[in-house]
Write a structure and sequence with these properties.
The chain is about 75% helix and about 0% strand. It has about 475 residues and is mostly helical. The radius of gyration is 24 Å and the shape is globular.
């Protein structure tokens, strides 16, 4: 059941109507029932995986808290991690490993596992693992209510594509939401986020996706300017698509009084690659930081060790996104960028940030900020080429086409190329303006203005939405 479907609107509306008529346990049961209906629309048999993951981690959390001795605590934690990673490895990566094993051994007739990728498995396994790890670290106490825990695992607004929530943030909110009275402010804020998300998805992201899909389907048929426009289009699409999902998820949850974490913070305004990863898919970035990078040693050891920790973390982040080499290379590409930034940071500081030391004097910070933003944005754009292609060879072709047009001067841009590049620049400029002046926040703060704005947003969505109702990109992960 996709967010951009009539079925979801009906499910959300019916759940909201019934929610505030029930007591504490009734509300929790209703949210669980709606979550089961939501996921069951994708696949009823695959619901069993969510139940297995929830049962294992609920039990392991209790056992870890009650276990005497560190050895027993570690065993229960290991069981939780093994079950979740085992499910993820089998359903998402089995054929990837078999395919590469066959290529290494020369046995191209290797058998493949006939499995359907369970929607959201990358998200809910990470969310449940974080629970048992936090219990093990004594950051939270395990819940004794399986009803509460199962809702934490299966809460339908964020079940399929996040945000990846922590139990310490979400579980307590279920208690508050289940005991609160109806609040009009939550309903209004929720509907505003849903409307904004639907607009970004149906009007902006899907139209950008149509441009990108046409060129990336067979790059050999197009010139460098078309490849550049398609890459800019995908750069917008993936941000608008995923942030739209997060907006709809946050808006849906807010109706019930649950405040999900912000997952994006205008990442295309980042001034360096580290800043980008603090703004992009924040819940996943923080998960890898807290449960992979820091346990590996983070930046506490030698410089060589720190660089190795970064590389391992970004390799796993790329692999998390998909069982294909282009995702692995995308993760490693960002890992290299983070390494270079970490090594070059002192030189960049001296050149731009400190006016007394830098050659640019008092203009150093301004120039450094602009240069850093422009370079970071286009390094991210190059990375999206790796992310989007079906085969790594296509990435080489697309980048070669762009180089020939921009650097070698082969071919001239057509008006439609320049028009889309202007739209891309306009989107970035509008993002800067919103960051500086808080445009959307000001609109939301004025009742009359917000009513007019969101009425226009809904009307534009109905008029301009693409008819195919394309799936959200991150549903495939």
């Amino acid at each position: 059941m996709a967010f951009n479907s009539l079925e979801y609107v009906l499910l959300l509306g019916l759940t909201a109507l019934l929610f505030f008529r029930l007591g504490y346990r009734g509300r929790l049961a209703l949210l669980i029932a709606s979550s089961l209906v939501f996921y069951g629309a994708f696949s009823v048999p695959l619901l069993s995986l969510i139940v297995i993951s929830a049962l294992v981690d609920y039990t392991c959390g209790l056992r870890i808290a009650r276990a005497e001795g560190q050895t027993r605590r570690k065993r229960w934690l290991a069981l939780s991690v093994a079950v979740n990673l085992g499910l993820l490895a089998y359903f998402k990566y089995a054929n990837f490993f078999l395919d590469n094993l066959g290529a290494l051994t020369g046995d191209l007739s290797a058998h493949y596992v006939e499995v359907l990728l369970p929607p959201g498995i990358s998200f809910y396994t990470f969310q449940t693992m974080s629970y048992t790890i936090d219990v093990y670290r004594r950051r939270i106490r395990p819940t004794t209510s399986f009803l509460r825990f199962f809702l934490y695992v299966s809460f339908f607004p964020q079940l399929i594509a996040g945000p990846i929530e922590r139990a310490g943030h979400l579980l307590v909110q279920f208690d508050h939401a289940a005991s609160r009275r109806f609040r009009l402010a939550n309903l209004v804020a929720g509907l505003q986020m849903i409307a904004w998300g639907m607009f970004k998805k149906a009007v902006l992201a899907d139209h950008c996706g149509a441009i990108a899909d046409r060129v990336y389907a067979d790059p050999s048929l197009y010139d460098g300017w078309s490849a550049l426009v398609a890459t800019y289009a995908f750069t917008l699409q993936i941000y608008l698509d995923f942030s739209a999902y997060s907006e709809i998820a946050r808006g849906s949850a807010r109706i019930f009084g649950v405040d999900l974490m912000v997952n994006f913070d205008q990442p295309y305004l980042a001034r360096n690659i580290s800043d980008f990863w603090r703004r992009w898919h924040i819940s996943l970035s923080e998960w890898f930081r807290d449960y992979v990078y820091i346990p590996l040693g983070g930046s506490r050891g030698t410089k060589r060790r720190t660089l190795a920790n970064l590389t391992i973390t970004m390799f796993l982040s790329g692999l998390w996104h998909g069982a294909a080499w282009n995702f692995v290379l995308w993760g490693l590409f960002h890992g290299v960028l983070l390494l270079v930034h970490a090594l070059a940071r002192p030189l960049l500081r001296a050149a731009f940030t400190w006016p007394r030391l830098g050659p640019l004097g008092p203009l150093g910070p301004l120039v450094g900020g602009v240069v850093g933003w422009f370079v970071t944005l286009h390094l991210v754009v190059i990375g999206w080429v790796l992310f989007r292609v079906e085969a790594v060879a296509d990435a080489n072709l697309i980048l070669a086409l762009i180089r020939r047009s921009l650097i070698d001067g082969r071919g001239a841009p057509r008006p439609e190329h320049l028009g889309f590049i202007a739209l891309f620049a306009g989107f970035i400029a509008l993002s800067f303006a919103d960051r500086r002046f808080g445009i959307l926040a000001r609109i939301n703060g004025d009742a009359a203005l917000s009513a007019t704005f969101y009425a226009a947003i809904v009307a534009l969505t109905l008029l301009l939405a693409k008819g195919d109702g394309a799936a959200f990109i991150y549903f495939q992960f």
